[in-house]
């Protein structure tokens, strides 16, 4: 592609995705507050995401490989503080000790160890310790503990106050899953549900795992499989980042982006990254699969257009119909768009905006329809959106009206917008500020509010021209108007985060 000095996306500063934290903030930084923080808002907003692309003189090649960095915004009695710490994964410690990349990641090949033979690489297939445990995607609570997640079988317990890494859990030992989604569901009774892959009676299956809530004891010791389904293609199970939960079903979308099992084994032997095991089949449709909560077996599947997705917004049943809302793309180019080199050269790539041209769509079908009936997606709003959130505690898996997200349109006038969508009317609202890049908006309900959007949105802010600045924005979720913000000056560049969780302060 010919180089051009003209920027194709002049309103988008992609450098916010390429920052590396050089200095952790272990002692809470006090921020400067503008506006007035709601007096009822008390707790910690924890965030997770890419923290550093650098190891010695080397650099990771994909955004999903960046070392996990956890952030904390503590809100108490009108004051707000900020901290950040790297998750002390085995991968992080090995890389730092060697001062180079020694563990192959999702999109980055490790430096070969001259002491390792082909026989060592064969043996490594059966050694989980050789896999990356870089949990840099999300954070979810298990009872009163909080864990960092990625799609590999490892999670890490994080101290919600100090951000110390306290413990590493291996789901292969806990419940025999070789991977799982980055977004489990926390049910109203405290149970945690996730979907992964496991070997069941000698065959690979997608499984639904339940971690029963307990006030005392280990939720992981009681984990067990409560449902399973056969993949559409035995040696090419679908790539899954999220799934849905309704009143009677677990909802799994088998998109035509798959994980080649043979490719995984070949790549392990050849020391190649995981992303080269992913295969996109544009000639195949997407399947919507329902696993019955009652029986744990596949109830029915439907089909819809070829699509790629990362995030389901919500799924629910209403009047005998299944509704699934999601952020949909026409293909899986969004993963390619997150290569570091692609981000660096986006301003001269005329196709880049289309790679991220996701739209919120609704899949709706009668539960009485024949198996494999075709479902035509309906556009919810003609704007790009990613990292969607809802009023989760009351509306997850139930009929709802509003969701919130950040813009995914890099060619928009304000690519850093926070958006709100009314799924009933299609009406949209947004908040934006020049050169400002918000993160996933997390909805916090007001005490005793009876309105679905009665509460605030919390979002971490970065600025393209201010590398060592971090902010926390508080929006009125009803009006999308700013209530307050807090500004912090950080001792080193502040990276952009992905997903997080709000932990209310206990009385």
Automatic annotation (TrEMBL):
GO terms for biological process: carotene catabolic process; retinal metabolic process. Binds 1 Fe(2+) ion per subunit. It holds the Pfam family RPE65. InterPro entries: Carotenoid_Oase. Keywords: Iron, Metal-binding, Monooxygenase, Oxidoreductase. Its cofactor is Fe(2+). One of its GO terms (molecular function) is beta-carotene 15,15'-dioxygenase activity. Fe cation binds at residues 183, 241, 311, 499. Belongs to the carotenoid oxygenase family. This is Beta,beta-carotene 15,15'-monooxygenase. It comes from Papilio xuthus (Asian swallowtail butterfly).
């Amino acid at each position: 592609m010919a180089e051009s000095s003209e920027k194709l996306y002049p309103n988008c500063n992609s450098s916010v995705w390429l920052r590396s934290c050089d200095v952790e903030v272990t002692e809470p930084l006090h921020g400067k507050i503008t506006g007035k923080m709601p007096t009822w808002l008390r707790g910690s907003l924890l965030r997770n995401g890419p923290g550093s692309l650098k190891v010695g003189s080397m650099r990771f090649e994909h955004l999903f490989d960046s070392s996990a960095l956890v952030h904390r915004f503590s809100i108490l009695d009108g004051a707000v503080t900020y901290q950040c710490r790297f998750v002390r994964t085995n991968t992080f410690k090995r890389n730092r000790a060697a001062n180079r990349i020694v563990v192959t990641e999702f999109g980055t090949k490790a430096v070969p160890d001259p002491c390792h033979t082909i026989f060592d690489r064969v043996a490594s297939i059966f050694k989980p310790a050789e896999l990356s445990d870089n949990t840099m995607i999300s954070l979810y609570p298990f009872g009163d503990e909080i864990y960092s997640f990625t799609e590999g079988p490892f999670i890490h317990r994080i101290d919600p106050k100090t951000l110390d890494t306290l413990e590493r859990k291996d789901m292969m030992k806990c419940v025999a899953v070789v991977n799982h989604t980055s977004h489990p569901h926390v049910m109203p009774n405290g149970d945690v549900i996730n979907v992964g892959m496991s070997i069941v009676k000698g065959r690979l299956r997608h499984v639904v795992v339940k971690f029963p809530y307990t006030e005392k004891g280990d939720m992981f010791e009681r984990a067990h499989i409560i449902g399973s389904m056969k993949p559409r293609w035995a040696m090419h199970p679908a790539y899954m980042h999220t799934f849905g939960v309704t009143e009677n079903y677990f909802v799994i979308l088998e998109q035509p982006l798959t994980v080649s099992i043979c490719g995984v084994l070949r790549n392990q032997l050849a020391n190649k990254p995981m992303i080269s095991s992913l295969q996109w089949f544009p000639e195949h449709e997407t399947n919507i699969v329902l696993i019955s909560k009652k029986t744990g077996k596949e109830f029915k599947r439907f089909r819809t257009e070829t699509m790629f997705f990362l995030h389901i917004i919500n799924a629910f049943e209403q009047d005998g119909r299944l509704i699934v809302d999601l952020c949909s793309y026409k293909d899986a180019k969004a993963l390619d768009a997150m290569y570091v080199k692609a981000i660096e050269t986006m301003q001269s790539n005329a196709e880049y905006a289309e790679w991220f041209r996701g739209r919120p769509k609704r899949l709706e079908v009668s539960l009485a329809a024949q198996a494999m009936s075709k479902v035509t997606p309906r556009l919810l709003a003609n704007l790009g959106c990613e990292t969607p959130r809802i009023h989760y505690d009351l509306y997850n898996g139930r009929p709802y009206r509003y969701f919130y997200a950040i813009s995914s349109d890099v060619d928009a006038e304000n690519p850093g917008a926070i958006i709100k969508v009314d799924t009933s009317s299609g009406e949209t609202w947004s908040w934006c500020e020049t050169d400002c890049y918000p993160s996933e908006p997390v909805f916090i309900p007001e005490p005793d509010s009876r309105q679905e959007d009665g509460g605030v949105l919390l979002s971490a802010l970065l600025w393209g021209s201010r590398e060592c600045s971090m902010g926390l924005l508080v929006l009125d979720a009803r009006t999308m108007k700013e209530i307050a913000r807090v500004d912090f000056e950080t001792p080193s560049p502040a990276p952009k985060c992905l997903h997080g969780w709000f932990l209310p302060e206990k009385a």
